[in-house]
């Protein structure tokens, strides 16, 4: 498959050249440039619009899914075509990323090309080649070393499913474009500047708010509410689809490694049993060996059990990130930036442009590494539960376990009770009463100052010891939350004031701003009104000039017509006279007076 990845560049470049030849350039260069010999052919083709594409989203997402195996190949740093020093590894990975992108470029280019008939034929042929080679590879090597039977099928069935979908999509494109070419169907209109959901969003803003809203279901209130006036761009759909498939492949790879490590631990456990048998269970290391065997067995079981909750956590993060994207975009559209840290209210334009290129790849990497870290943390928590609650019961030490658990719970309860008691004493004795019965709490005004100072003095020494536990709890909670939220690129895990050090969160904010500036429905609607009005005015002007050319009466020069319109504007708006630009030879005011005198006469 790696060899075919290199050879697939040949048909890929051929398809790119064909589509580039069909694509016409809008603006020609100067005659002194040799590129004018090409005419207006060989225009630049794009795989997809990463900012403003809302149509054909799932086709692009499935095309991203077809690259999952190659992305995981790069993620594992298995791309080693050359033997180079370690310091140049970044350049090799960059070349590998460019090669993977170039080999899969025809999928996206054929989906987004305007020449539907040719692009559907080329896309179908290229997808069929990849599909046939993948099937051939699975038939030749169906089994593997770690999972045994059908291991290759487990790795490649998502890519096969995506390629099969692309084959059907290109076939549908071919049939539809052929019917249009034969005149059996009308040709579809060009991509609209203003999407339907954007127009509906603006209409909803202009409508009066309803007095009584419809009752929402539990799912809409607690989980997710579908909004018909909002659509996720193709970039978000493609990133989510690719992240799902890469997460599945990563879990399969991790399970293969677990099987390998488990077999090695079984061999090591057999050697330990042979040692114990040779010593007749009387050796000095026998208790230690038994504990090591127990630790290995518990670790294997806990690691296997925590695969499901760790994977479900990352899957829920993917859906939650989509929900946060919609929520954050709507807040930015409404001009609300209070949910962002203060330093991100005016981000750098160049960093934001780079951020939208980084986001998709970083989101997938964060999910994969986040899964591994969450899995490790959950396994450690499982080991703690096993050694603190389960194993004591297995070893007939349940009473001692309950006694220790009760003492620990009582100690923590007393500490928390003393902290709550301090707050109650401060509320009851050291604050002045409410100034109004409508106040929610007492004012921050001291009362019984002498007793308050004695209260502070005697609790000073106790709070030193209490602060030690609070510091350790702060460290523990920060570690747990940091590792639990490591896969959430939409939420920073840094302290307040240090958010800029979180590169993933910075990429998220930059991506939000780029989408906000380029896909804001109000802004796009305003630009659509300007463009539509300009086209209508040009059309009316063309019709008017055509009528003037066809009439037998006297023709009016463009200069006279412009002066007449200028006169009408100045008569209706006298204040504009002071704002006019002066002309060489005489001032604008003199010129205006001449025009006004001419109009009066």
The helix/strand series, from N terminus to C terminus, equals HHHHHHHHHHHHHHHHHHHH
What is the average per-residue confidence, as pLDDT, rounded to a whole number? 81
Question: Any low-confidence stretches, pLDDT <50, length ≥5?
Answer: none
Radius of gyration, CA atoms, in whole angstroms: 35 Å
Distance between the termini: 88 Å
**Secondary structure tally: strands:** 0
User: By helix and strand content, what is the structural category?
Assistant: mainly alpha
Instruction: Give the overall shape, derived from the CA principal axes.
Output: flat
Percent of sequence in beta strands: under 5%
Note the total helix count: 20
Q: How much helicity do the residues have?
A: 55-70%
Largest sheet: none
Notes on the structure:
The chain is mostly helical and 601 residues long. The protein is 69% helix and 0% strand. The protein is built from 20 helices and no strands. It is flat.
Structure at a glance:
The protein is an all-alpha fold and 601 residues long. Helix content is 69%, strand content 0%. It has helices at 2-7, 9-22, 57-65, 68-75, 89-103, 105-112, 116-140, 151-181, 196-206, 218-222, 234-278, 286-305, 307-333, 349-394, 398-429, 449-484, 503-519, 521-550, 558-572, 588-600.
List keywords for this structure.
single chain; 601 residues; mainly alpha; 20 helices
Topology:
Blueprint: H1 2-7, H2 9-22, H3 57-65, H4 68-75, H5 89-103, H6 105-112, H7 116-140, H8 151-181, H9 196-206, H10 218-222, H11 234-278, H12 286-305, H13 307-333, H14 349-394, H15 398-429, H16 449-484, H17 503-519, H18 521-550, H19 558-572, H20 588-600
Helix pairs in contact: 2-6, 2-7, 3-8, 3-11, 4-11, 6-7, 7-8, 9-18, 11-12, 11-13, 11-14, 12-14, 13-14, 13-17, 14-15, 14-17
